[in-house]
Design a protein that fits this description.
This protein has 470 residues and is of the alpha+beta class. The chain is built from 19 helices and eleven strands. The termini are far apart.
């Protein structure tokens, strides 16, 4: 039996202005500039508001009011111009750079090798398969299958290994290794041969399990070497980079991308002052000519003009939403950053990391009245210049735990204390996690053993046995 019924559902539909604002909030300063210039190119109603100080006789652009436009869907009266960044441009602003991506560096090096198109395609796929540390965690057989199914490239395990050898010759040394031992050996192969280097390679080649387990006395006994010789060889190994993909050497920073912070914080007369420099972000205004076309066509009965008016009205609507969205982006970012500064006032006055209070997105959402999702969009990919350096906004957020006095401290403070405990330990007898709990307790921090283990992992601090030194 068929049943008919009416079901009402309440859904929230975002307005074009809200959608536009959300998209702009996510953009850092440089991308915002690009987005505005793209809009200027695509929407003839928008113009860049260029200063007219040098030509006083030229007619000043008049403000356009469309309140007299007679239509069923009138455009609300508003000021069709926005100067949302103030007058102080700082073109001299010192930006900082981020180095070119690890993958791009390898692809550039691949371009200098004399390979066939087929070999280059296989090598490119292998480069794309490396993890963030620069390791290849896939076996050749799996890569052969992936190349066939995902890239439509027929190859063999032998060719994959051959191309991997090519990549392993790239910089930084150790890239393309399949495990830590191979990574370290690849780096040692690049160094000038010495007795210490030869011993280090022998340890990694023949006694790697004992080396990994830090069974140093067993290695000393089996090789018949002195403890001093073992220390010298270990010193060679410990200077190597276990994560070649973790950073690119300065020699690969030629294509560095400039990052322009969205905020600048200064201390003036003992007070924190926040600014949002304009840099090269254009001010926007509505093109007078197109506004006049609309006004002229409002009372016209000519079909052609009516159609032109409809087109221009559509573009004016789009311009209005975009101008307002840029303005709202500025206000949202400014309010959010000011709330962060107020929350972390003591830190921003001094720059001491221990003054950073536990702070999550919800804390700032409650202070500003914005949604957590909005705060997340503001924080993502944004930077601030402070008297102590340039920081990502994400840096200031962390959860917290209570200390022995019942006061909440940030996880960053706890991690800093934990790192200090490990740095100060006797490396011949490293502190176990239980001992680290005791040490943290003596410092006034109430932390469980599982928390110590979690923070230790996040700080890339190995277990006690792995921190042991001769």
């Amino acid at each position: 039996m068929l049943k008919q019924g009416l079901e009402l559902k309440q859904t929230q539909k975002l307005s074009p202005l809200q959608i536009q604002t959300i998209k702009l909030i996510e953009l850092p300063t440089q991308e915002l500039e690009q987005r505005i210039r793209k809009e200027l190119e695509e929407n003839p109603v928008l113009d860049e508001n260029v200063s007219n100080e040098n030509n006083e006789e030229e007619e000043a652009p008049r403000e356009v009011s469309l309140s007299d436009y007679k239509d069923d869907d009138p455009i609300p009266g508003y000021k069709l111009r926005v100067n949302n960044y103030g007058k102080d441009e700082r073109p001299q602003y010192n930006t900082f750079t981020v180095k070119e991506s690890f993958t791009q560096s390898l692809m550039d090096q691949l371009g200098f090798r004399n390979l066939t198109e087929h070999q280059r395609a296989v090598a490119s796929f292998i480069i794309g398969s490396l993890d963030d540390d620069g390791y290849l965690r896939r076996d050749p057989e799996s890569l052969v299958d992936d190349l066939a199914f995902r890239a439509g490239i027929e190859t063999t395990e032998e060719e994959v290994v051959q191309m991997l050898k090519v990549i392993q010759d790239f910089d930084p040394p150790g890239v393309g290794a399949r495990d830590l031992r191979e990574c370290l050996l690849l780096q040692l192969d690049r160094l000038k041969p010495t007795p210490e280097l030869t011993l280090a390679k022998k340890i990694l080649t023949d006694f790697y399990p004992d080396f990994a387990s830090k069974h140093f006395q067993k290695i000393i006994s089996r090789l018949g070497i002195s403890e001093e010789e073992m220390k010298t060889a270990m010193a060679k190994i410990l200077k190597l980079n276990p994560s070649p993909g973790g950073q690119i050497d300065d020699s690969y920073s030629e294509q560095a991308q400039q990052i322009v912070p969205d905020f600048v914080l200064t201390i003036e007369n003992g007070e924190l002052k926040l600014t949002m420099p304009r840099f090269s972000i254009p001010e926007l205004k509505v093109n007078r000519k197109y506004a006049d076309i609309l006004l002229e066509a409002a009372n016209s009965s000519e079909r052609g003009k009516k159609e032109a008016a409809a087109f221009v009205k559509k573009k004016l609507d789009s311009a209005k939403w975009f101008v307002e969205a840029v303005k709202q982006r500025h206000n949202t970012l400014e309010s959010t950053m000011q709330a962060i500064i107020d929350y972390q006032h003591d830190y921003f006055m001094d720059g001491d990391e221990s003054y950073l209070k536990p702070m999550v997105l919800k804390d700032i959402a409650e202070r500003t009245g914005f949604d957590i999702s909005t705060i997340s969009r503001v924080v993502n990919s944004k930077y601030i210049e402070t008297p102590f350096g340039i920081y990502s906004l994400k840096y200031f957020f962390s959860e917290g735990l209570e200390n022995q006095d019942g006061e909440e401290v940030s996880t960053r403070e706890l991690k800093k204390a934990l790192q200090e405990c490990v740095d100060a330990e006797d490396k011949r007898k490293p502190l176990t996690d239980d001992q680290l709990v005791e040490e943290m307790t003596r410092r006034g921090y109430k932390v469980a053993r599982r928390t110590i283990a979690k923070y230790r992992d996040q700080l890339n601090i190995p277990k006690a046995r792995m921190r042991k030194e001769l």
